[in-house]
Amino acid sequence: MRPERAEPGQVEPTRPGDTGTWRRLNETASAGEEGEQRTKPSPMDRVHRITDNLSLRARLTLIYGMLFFAAGSVLVLVNYLIVALLLNALLVEDSAAELLAHSDLIEEVLNHVTRFSLLALFLVGLLAVGLGYAVAGRALSPLQKITRIARRLSERSLHERIALSGPDDEIRELADTFDGMLERLDRAFDGQRRFVANASHELRTPLAINRTLLEVALSAPDVSADLKSVGQTLMETNARHERLIDGLLLLAKSDRELEVHARVDLGEVAETVLSQLDAEIGSSGLTLRRDLRTAAVVGDPVLLERLVGNLVENALKYNVEGGEITIRSGLYEGMPAVQVENSGKVVPAYEIEGLFEPFRRGTGDRVGSGRSAGLGLSIVRSVVRAHEGAVTAWPRAGGGLVVTVCLPAPPAEPTDRR
């Protein structure tokens, strides 16, 4: 069987014996050709490109410097004219012979005045540019504080506020407006999480009661075959609802800020998950390939185990007969990572982003699937965000997906020096 050829935007399937090689997206072949066909930028385009890449502080400094040199140039010109007029006024009563004799002296004096004025303008201009850079940084420091806080914010840290002090100016008004927006977002996200958690807890109790009643009813010796068939169907439906509730609870938990920060090896987590699903993988008839290497991260072990478990379960459920699953862990582009690759139906690239939305499945339907609740990849993305990582999914050549999760590397452990 010949391996599928990866087209641009797809990932090449893992070949036998190539398990340890990370799968990467196939680059577009025409990208280089398009780059060669681009016309050379004009000088004005280069200037605009340079100015567009300047920071606001650099732009303000540049404006300060230009204004200072423009005003200084006007001052040098005015100074030149004043000195020339004064010298001519002092010698206006002299005879023509004396004026001719002093003309060289007047020109030399004006040259010296111009030269020293330009030198003073250059030196003071450099000092003005330096002071302008410092003043611009001082003026923009409130904006830098707003930027730092905005970068730290996420759905789990919306409680932080800027609380900018100082005069009641435009920047203070911007910071107060931003704080008000954060307050509203914090209340909205907190209310949403509490609603999901409370609703999930409230729904688990009646589902547990229903399961118990069904088990008691089906265990009776005089149960008819029709009633037993209906009872089994209700048990499966009840189990599906319990999985849905458990998924919602886990989703609500992973959306909150991490409470546990332990050092975890993704390779060991993957080994644990595979041992738990060993029976299911064996009965599925799928070929399992693995290359699990050390990938240390800091996070919640329970959530990380659920992350890897969801990836493997997703690869099991949405596979084809006689297909394969490849799981690898280690360092991917310098970051601890885990990658799960599976064969399956062809998934268009434009549908991949929707797979990470709650209650979305590969077939695009919301109902009619008893295999899952449609929360697997949603929980994966939520757990990855809680750990400040990144998850990417690419279509696999010939069908299936390749999902890669990269997490931040843990800080280096201090070494004992004796």
Give the strand content: 5-15%
Mean pLDDT across every amino acid position: 80
Query: Total strand count, please?
Result: 7
Strand order of the largest sheet: 2-4-5-7-6
N- and C-termini, Cα separation: 60 Å
Shape: elongated
Low-confidence stretches: 29-38, 364-370
What would you report as the Rg, rounded to the nearest angstrom?
35 Å
H/E series = HHHHHHEHHEEHEEHHEE
Number of helices: 11
Portion of residues within helices: 55-70%
Which sheet architecture does the biggest sheet show?
A: 5 strands, mixed
Global structural class: alpha+beta
InterPro entries: HAMP_dom, HATPase_C_sf, HATPase_dom, His_kinase_dom, HisK_dim/P_dom, HisK_dim/P_sf, Sig_transdc_His_kin-like_C, TCS_sensor_his_kinase
Domain Histidine kinase: 198-411
Region (Disordered): 1-44
Domain HAMP: 137-190
Give the gist of this structure.
This protein has 418 residues and is α+β, with helices and mostly antiparallel strands. The protein is built from 11 helices and 7 strands.
